[in-house]
Amino acid sequence: VFIMKLLVILLFSGLMTGCRGNSSYSLPPKLLLVSFDGFRADYLQNYEFPHLQNFIKEGVLVEHVKNVFITKTFPNHYSIVTGLYEESHGIVANSMYDAVTKKHFSDSNDKDPFWWNEAVPIWVTNQLQENRSSAAAMWPGTDVLIHNTTPSYFMNYSISVSFEERVNNITTWLSNSNPPVTFATLYWEEPDASGHKYGPEDKENMRRVLKEIDDLIGYLVQKLKMLGLWENLNVIITSDHGMTQCSENRWINLDLCIDRSNYSLIDLSPVAAVLPKINITEVYEKLKNCSPHMNVYLKKDIPDRYYYQHNDRIQPIILVADEGWTIVLNKSSSKLGDHGYDNSLPSMHPFLAAHGPAFHKGYKYSTINIVDIYPMMCHILGLKPHPNNGTFSHTKCLLVDQWCINLPEAIGIVIGALLALTTLTCLIIIMQNRLSVPHPFSRLQLQEDDDDPLIDL
C-alpha cells in the first residue's frame, strides 16, 4: 500500500511539473494589450496572415472570444480592461443618454469621467501600484481622467495618427520610462472601418485590408525585437467584436411603424435604444410587430443571458435586429457590414493570440469569454483584480505557471495511472508468491507420523 501511494504522488507531481513548465520570467512582468477593431475570428481561417501566424506559432491562440452584448466598440473595449458586463461597467453603447443629468455620450463626446467611473480599468489599478506606470495609444477611455487617474503616458484620440506612430510611442514608453511602464495598450481602427464599408464577404477588398493588418503586426514584432523587448514582454493581440454582411434588401424601417414624435432614438442599429416620449406601453405596442426580423424588449424583459438590464443608461425599450438586418429611419444606411448583434453569433466573435514568457508556446484553445481576459492580465501583472465577471480558470491553460488539465485528459491520466498501478500490484503479488513457494527438492520434508527410518537395520 505504501509503495502504491508513493507511486501516485510521484506520478502526479511529475505531471504538474511538466504542465507548469518554466515560469521564471523577469520581474516586474510587462504586458502590451493590442486591439485591431472588428477583427472577426474566422478571418484567421479564410485569409493569409504570415506574420500573425508566426506570432501564434510561438505563443497561444484562442479561436473564439465570446464578447459581451451589445457587440459594439466602446462597451467591449471597456469589458476587456474591467472584466465586467456592460450593465456593470456602465458603457452600455457607443451612444448613451443619462436621464438624470441629461448628458449625452458618443464616440466624439466621450471625455466626461461621469460615464467611465462606474468601473476601474486595469491601467488605473496598475498606475496606482508603487514603482509602476501605464501607457496607452488610443485605447478607448485612456485619455479620460477615470477616478482622477490617467496613464502616465497616453495619446489623445485622433484617427489621423498612423499605426507606426502609435507603435513608436508605445515602444519608447515601454523601453525608457521611470517608473517603468508595465502595462500598455495599443488600438487600431482596422479592419472595422473597411468591414463596414465593404462587408466581410467582399473577399478582394478584405484580403487587401487584412494583408495590411498583418504587415502592421509584422512591424510591431520587428520593432519589439529591435528594441530588445520581444523576449521579456507579454503581448496580447485581440479585438472587440466581429462583423457580418448587411444588405439594402434587409432594412427595418421604423418610420413605417411609429411616428418619430413619439420617441427619441438614443442609439441606432442593430440594437436600437428607444426613449419613449409618450406612454412606454403605447410605444412598445407600436414597435413589437414592426418586423419579424427584430426582437422588441421592454427593459425588464431583456433576456438574462445578455446581462444587459441593470443599469439606468439602458433605455426603457431596446430593439435587437436579426443578424444582417439593419434598423433605419426612412431607409438610410450605407453600411455593407455591421456588428452589435447577439453575442452568441460566431460572426460577432473576435479571437485572441498571445506571446511572451507568461504564455505557452504552440498552444490552441477553443473559447473564452471576453471578461476572462481581465483576471488573466491581473494575474500576469501580479495585480489584485477588482470584483469582476470573469473566470480566471477559463484562461489557466494559456499560462505556463498554472496547473491546467481538461476533462478528457484527466480521465486518460486517471485510467492510465490505475492501469499502471494494477500492473505493478500484480507484479508485486507474483514476486511475493514466487519468493514464498519452496524450490522443488530444496529439502526433505517428513510427515509427522513418518518415524520409520529409511533403512532397516
TrEMBL record:
Function description: Hydrolyzes extracellular Ap3A into AMP and ADP, and Ap4A into AMP and ATP. Ap3A and Ap4A are diadenosine polyphosphates thought to induce proliferation of vascular smooth muscle cells. Acts as a procoagulant, mediating platelet aggregation at the site of nascent thrombus via release of ADP from Ap3A and activation of ADP receptors.
Cofactors that this protein relies on: Zn(2+)
Keywords, comma-separated and alphabetical: Blood coagulation, Cell membrane, Disulfide bond, Glycoprotein, Hemostasis, Hydrolase, Membrane, Metal-binding, Signal, Transmembrane, Transmembrane helix, Zinc
Location of the protein in the cell: Cell membrane
Keyword Translocase appears in the UniProt entry: no
Cellular component aspect of the GO annotation: plasma membrane
Record GO biological process: blood coagulation; positive regulation of blood coagulation; purine ribonucleoside catabolic process
Region forming the signal peptide: 1-21
Upper lineage: Eukaryota, Metazoa, Chordata, Craniata, Vertebrata
Membership in a protein family: Belongs to the nucleotide pyrophosphatase/phosphodiesterase family.
Bilayer-crossing regions: 410-430
Protein's name in the database: Bis(5'-adenosyl)-triphosphatase ENPP4
Catalytic activity from the UniProt record: P(1),P(3)-bis(5'-adenosyl) triphosphate + H2O = AMP + ADP + 2 H(+)
Molecular function per GO: bis(5'-adenosyl)-triphosphatase activity; metal ion binding
Organism of this sequence: Ictidomys tridecemlineatus (Thirteen-lined ground squirrel)
The protein's Enzyme Commission number: 3.6.1.29
Pfam families: Phosphodiest (PF01663)
Keyword Transmembrane: yes
InterPro entries reported in the protein's UniProt record: Alkaline_phosphatase_core_sf, Phosphodiest/P_Trfase
Membrane topology according to the record: Single-pass type I membrane protein
